[in-house]
Design goal:
By secondary structure, the chain is mostly helical. It has 2 domains: about 130 residues, Serine Threonine Protein Phosphatase 5, Tetratricopeptide repeat; about 80 residues, no CATH class. Helix content is about 70%, strand content about 0%. The protein has 16 helices and no strands. Helix 8 packs antiparallel against helix 9, helix 13 crosses helix 15 and helix 15 runs antiparallel to helix 16. The longest helix has 19 residues. It is globular.
């Protein structure tokens, strides 16, 4: 127990801010984690070994290397599942990779019941549930926690039903609850894109980039809309070939879903032009 107390004291010095939604492939590092845990000894060295792993986990998460972050956080949680930063970090890593069921398992095993853990339980449960059940879970969670992440998830559910007014309301409530700069504008831009309002989408997303120029996701979404609107030079300005190919491929997916087969075919061929190694088997979805 004293080890957990010391580790907690070390952790408090530099709590990270989790804010990413990007997805990454899952790596199975169970064997490595188990071997590392067995290598620890029950002495003071243990504490500093764990703290170093925590620092590595933070660095990986901040770099959006969620598979590596998951590996490090898993080691800590298996060592002590009452270290909140590790439990939260592991859960968010799974969610960032789209592994909601795995996130739920982590939270089911921990005895922690802090506000953050309770919110993550609602998030993981809603993301793992069927659509109608997910809305009920989120609405129940919001009755207890006025959290921007829950409002945004609910907004996405409404948008999926083409309930535009309800989606806008949820995104506005997320902003009121407090969230990072530019996220409301990004979400309203994506909502306009879903409605087929490309000029409105571009306006929102351009403002999102102005509010958070360091957030690549906002910039990528803006460029996607420019591609769909035929502004190819502006969309691809200052991009390397790999990123350009990925964006064009994502735009092809959206064009196909909108029923614009001619544009989708043009964009697929363009993606292959920018990256000869590009696989025309396109993604199933675009990050939002």
């Amino acid at each position: 127990m004293w080890r957990a107390v010391v580790i907690t004291a070390l952790i408090v010095a530099a709590q990270p801010a989790f804010a990413s939604d990007n997805k990454a492939p899952v790596n199975d590092e169970t064997t490595i984690a188990a071997d590392t845990i067995r290598a620890f000894e029950s002495n003071s060295t243990d504490v500093f070994s764990i703290f170093q792993i925590l620092l590595d986990a933070r660095a990986a998460y901040d770099a959006q290397d969620f598979a590596q972050a998951l590996t490090h956080y898993s080691i800590i949680v298996k060592y002590d599942d009452t270290i909140e930063e590790a439990v939260v970090g592991l859960t968010k890593s799974y969610l960032a990779m789209g592994q909601a069921d795995a996130a739920k398992t982590v939270l089911d095993k921990t005895p922690l019941a802090t506000t953050e853990v309770q919110i993550l339980r609602v998030m993981s449960a809603s993301m793992a549930a069927p659509h109608e059940s997910a809305k009920t879970i989120l609405q129940s969670g919001l009755a207890q926690h006025d959290d921007a992440r829950l409002w945004n998830l609910l907004g996405n559910k409404h948008a999926g039903e083409r309930a535009w007014a309800e989606a806008s309301f949820a995104f506005m409530r997320a902003e009121k609850a407090g969230q990072r700069p530019g996220l409301l504008l990004n979400n309203l831009g994506l909502l306009a894109l879903q409605k087929g309002e490309l000029e409105q989408a571009e306006a929102y997303l351009s403002r999102a980039v102005e509010h958070a120029p360091q957030t690549q996701k906002f910039d990528s979404n803006r460029r996607l809309v420019l591609l769909l609107n035929g502004s190819y030079m502006d969309a691809l300005d200052n991009l390397d070939r790999d990123r350009a190919a990925n964006l064009i491929a994502d735009a092809a997916v959206i064009a196909s879903r909108r029923g614009d087969a001619k544009l989708a075919d043009f964009l697929r061929r363009s993606a292959a032009h920018y990256n000869p190694l590009y696989n025309p088997k396109l993604k199933n979805s675009v990050d939002s």
